[in-house]
Write a structure and sequence with these properties.
Elements: H1 3-24, H2 57-63, E1 73-77, E2 89-91, H3 97-104, E3 113-121, H4 131-139, E4 142-150, H5 155-170, E5 175-179, E6 182-191, E7 199-207, E8 214-223, E9 226-234, H6 248-258
Antiparallel strand pairs: 1-3, 2-5, 3-4, 4-9, 5-6, 6-7, 7-8, 8-9
Helix pairs in contact: 3-5
Length: 259
Amino acid sequence: MRATAVRRTALAAAVASLTLLATACGGSDSDAKGDGGTSGAKDDASAKPAAVKALSSAELEKASLEQGDVAGHKISKTGPEDIAQPGDVTVDKKECEPIGFAFYGVKRGTPVGNAGRKVVEEPKKDESADPEDLLAGMLDMTSSLVTLASYDGDGAVKNMAELRESAAKCATGGFTLSMKGSKQKVTKLTEEKVTGGEEALAWRVQMGEGDEVAPFKLVSVRQGGTVATFFSFNLAKTGADADFERPTAVIDAQVAKLG
């Protein structure tokens, strides 16, 4: 990959990606997230848990990923600057709000507790590579926002059902998200198969238009009364046909800690 191509790739992905992860997504103690997420699950949403008592934010913090839990990844706690308040985000189609809010980690429903992490894959190093390939390798890493939200009773089941219904209604036709005036166009949602937890959902999300199109991955997993959401992107992957692997190791590690 030539240097100009690398720069173009980075720019296109950054326009659609970095704003979301660095300034819009939230998963901290002070804001509950109602997105779903995960790496494994039974797709039968009707399998509702019995009486479920939600975990507190303090308990979710203990169940969240920590540095060293996933080899080759840097893990840090989200802070206030990462939190999107409900009033900060608007979606031009009401039926698309649940899936759109999931990208930003916006609170949905009435979660009892929440927590969040930023997880960034460490860049691949190859001392024998030429400078241009080395730069491309440094861009080829997946970053994820991980949010946890806990609900009493059947709140987590309802959360997942709402997300599934929203994605089905908004899979084609697209919709527009606005975060404090910064707009992002979602042009396509493609459901993907996942397994893990008690219930799991996943999509490839295409954002942007023209030459600034980039793929994202959204995964939502329910374990008991807790919903874990994973929103990921890779700076080296842009274009309508581009794709990248879900961060399975990250998802599996987080679901295991919730189990």
